[in-house]
Write a structure and sequence with these properties.
Distance between the termini: 99 Å
Radius of gyration: 30 Å
Strand content: 5-15%
Number of domains: 1
Largest sheet: 8 strands, mixed
CATH architecture: Alpha-Beta Complex
Number of strands: 8
Length: about 300
């Protein structure tokens, strides 16, 4: 009997302990719920509404007008010239002679391709050294025959293949920079889509640098920048903002001279109007430049690029 009484007393003492245990754990259960908002706040909520990153996407839109669209609309009877007279003819770089509204010009530009086959053949508009040397050969013809040069830039960069490097990719681009800076003829450059690194700059030294409103122009792609700085491609939207690659910023920094407005939503929403607006801006620039003596034109061009980066 004594043993039963002791067991009963022990059970009574243990019962309250069981009731109070959940009460002590209840506050602990609330703590994770309070911490939840902090975890949500760390998510990259700004990325979808990042206007710079949206501009990058518009510049890369698959329906955006390409070089061939501009050429077909401006001068369907343009005469393409081939070969660099050294190694090969690069389909990723167009060079030829055209007549646009009575204005005889030399036109060069990156040719990306619209279909899958064209894109592969043209390496998505990434030129080999042969392409840059071909462009320079034709631009020298423009100087010889006193023809203005129109250069349409739309590339993610020069082709980074082993053969391209072996044949002197860097040298070909550097030579173009030096030679274009002193060509004795008007040069109008238009960044129509992507202006990527030296691949873009290799045909982008001019007296007037125009840029479409939703185009981009930068020393490196946002993805490339993110992979170098953070080793994480997901940081590309942040890198895009830091690079200041949009037309508004580049106009403020003096990298481009004029921004050509695009139809609402981007050039792909109304390609015909965008192409017509670019033509109007290009011809106006050419007619303005032709009034300037060529020697003075070259001096101004050289001074323009020498002043970039000084703040």
């Amino acid at each position: 009997m004594a043993t039963k009484k002791v067991a009963a007393k022990t059970a009574k003492k243990a019962a309250p302990a069981k009731k109070t245990a959940p009460a002590k754990k209840a506050p602990a259960a609330k703590k994770p719920a309070a911490a939840a908002p902090a975890v949500t706040a760390e998510a990259p909520a700004e990325v979808p509404t990042n206007p710079t990153w949206e501009t990058v996407q518009i510049a890369r839109h698959p329906d955006r007008p390409l070089f061939t669209d501009y050429l077909t609309a401006w001068a369907p009877d343009a005469e393409e010239l081939h070969g660099d007279r050294l190694v090969a003819d690069d389909p990723a770089m167009y060079a030829g002679i055209a007549t646009i509204d009575g204005e005889r010009v030399v036109i060069v530009g990156h040719r990306k391709g619209r279909t899958t086959e064209e894109k592969i053949s043209n390496r998505f508009g990434m030129a080999n050294p042969d392409g840059y040397r071909k462009a320079m050969r034709i631009m020298r013809l423009a100087e010889k025959f006193h023809l203005p040069i129109i250069s349409l830039v739309d590339t993610s960069g020069a082709f980074p293949g082993l053969d391209a490097e072996a044949r002197g990719q860097a040298e070909a681009i550097a030579k173009n920079l030096a030679d274009m800076s002193v060509l004795k003829t008007p040069i109008v450059v238009v960044v129509t889509g992507e202006g990527g690194s030296g691949g873009a700059l290799g045909i982008a030294v001019g007296d007037r640098i125009l840029m479409l409103e939703h185009a981009i122009y930068s020393v490196i792609s946002p993805e490339g920048c993110a992979s170098i700085l953070w080793r994480d491609g997901k940081m590309a939207p942040v890198a895009a903002q830091a690079l200041k690659l949009t037309s508004g910023w580049l106009k403020k920094l003096g990298v481009v001279d004029s921004v050509i407005p695009e139809p609402k939503g981007g050039a792909h929403t109304n390609p015909a109007k965008a192409i017509a607006d670019v033509k109007k801006a290009v011809l106006a620039a050419i007619r303005e430049l032709k009034k300037i003596p060529v020697e003075k034109l070259v001096e101004q061009r050289y001074a323009k690029f020498a002043a970039m980066g000084r703040f």
